[in-house]
Design goal:
Elements (H helix, E strand, L loop, with lengths): L4 H12 L1 E6 L2 E6 L3 H8 L3 H12 L3 H13 L11 H14 L7 H10 L4 H4 L7 E5 L9 E5 L5 H19 L13 H12 L4 H11 L7 H12 L4
Antiparallel strand pairs: 1-2, 3-4
Helix pairs in contact: 5-6, 9-11
Length: 236
Amino acid sequence: MAKNFFEEILENIEKDGGAHLTLDGKQIFFPISTEKESKKNKKLSFHEKINQKFWILTSSDIFLEKVKKIKEKWNLPRYIKSEEDHKFNLDIKKICRAFKLSYAYQELVKNFVLNESVSENMLSAVLDYPAEFVVTPKSLKDHFVYIKVYPETTLNDVIDLWNGSFKHIKRKYFKCDNKKIERKINLKRDLEILKLKRNGMRNNNIVEFINERYESSPINFDYIRKLVRRLKNGTT
């Protein structure tokens, strides 16, 4: 049965994300957001979450009052000396705690207290990485790498970090065998062969015993010889 005009449009929207229409003999494509795409676009990235929440925060009278008190306490605007920086940062952290803001907001709040304005440059000063690898010192007994995340970090942020950096991290910080491990279907059987061999069983008896025990994966004399050599060398 031939498709009518509306069925063809719906099929195009589903397949191409829009409608192909012919007007005055010319093909025109109209992109149309589907419900699925619309929901996808509602998800905010790490930076979008922080920037949006911070814009809203700067319109709060309570927040602005706390900013005003810190400015008065530190006699701002002025240059904060290096020896004052620690105590000043503690006051910034107090504001963040009062509004339940994560560490990712601290630099934004600090800049706002110092400048009392919001600019695109300030918003771009937020953490560059929504997730990052942190390597513990080699001097520690348990030397390892962990992923540092924030409440605003998304699963995609972690996946992007893993795909982009983990191979480099392993090569640089861990001097261990990191070859790809493939599933060994007959590993249990092969380890049993080695055990029988070490217990002094002859190859012909091993073949008979194993082929009776593992009917779906029989072996021969040559397989035993090669297998024992590999396992003794620590390879599979």
